[in-house]
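#onboarding

Welcome to the new folks! Below is a worked example of what a typical request in this channel looks like: someone posts a single protein sequence, and someone else replies with the predicted structure as tokens. Don't worry about understanding the tokens yet, we'll cover that in week two.

Example request:
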Amino acid sequence: MGAWRVTGDATGEATAAGPAPHPSGAEAPPAPVAAGALTWLRRLVVLAVVAYAVVQLIAQWNEVSAALSRLSWPRLVLAAVAVTAGVLLSPVVWQTMVGALDVRVRVQDASKIYLVGQLGKYVPGSVVAFLLQMELARAVGVTRARSFTASLLTAGVVVVASLLAGTLAIPALRANEPSLLWLFLLLPIGLAFLHPAVLTFAVSTVLRLLRREPLAHRLSGRAIVRATVVSVVTYAFYGVQLYVLAGSQRTSWDHNPGVVLLLCIGTMGLAMTAGLVAFVLPSGIGARELVVVGGLSAVMPYGPALALAVVSRVLFTAVELAAAGAATLVVRLSRERSLPG
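Example response:
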């Protein structure tokens, strides 16, 4: 297939105008061998991570099965409710960031754009999530440049907020997984970038690279603070989920409940950061679980911690799929009601 020509539409968006002939009249050269090799390398990394997880589960199966048997349905439901609260709150961050770019999006549309787009993170080593969000946002009148910028801003805010929450788990990680503490090197850099002047300059630079007009004014500090606070609250819900699961294990009862709750919030915050950094893995699988096990190992043996990390992953996947479907349905019903007659 030939290369695609890119033209501008009435809104200044880049659109595909059909295959452009190769200058020599021949077909375009095949994709570089390096690209194919990189794809296979990603697959091998994912396979290695999954294989390692399976080996660990088998090796610890007696403790893992015992931990799973202690999980009651009420606890699982309560944990799922906590995850759902965090997942449904997360689109507010994207909506706030796109609003800071002078674009207004209804909360229903923002939920569909963000939640459905986030499913792209299950594709390893790609920017599918951003691409999905760009196309979904364009359907409601948001240009690709603005939606892409909003997604970048959201990712930045989310990383900083997760690291802020993750500081609560530093004592546990220092004792159990000290190799993960390097992630906190990102925190001072992230906090500096959240300054409105610095963030405005960074966003304008990205827009220039995309051959778009830079921001007409400085980003609102209030919007940045609001998005950061909402993100921290989201991680608090995720931490509550882990706390509810951890409460099923007898060994966690020997510790102060308040300390365990703070540990769980910090663990989930840092786990999400690890998942984002390990972008080559689908939804950060393996990296996220490594942090969860490292944090929970401060209050329970390795086997039960591994079991709860797996259960947490399953809960997140189920809730994210359900939330994306529900958001799509709500938007569709809302549009049907708004149709005349």
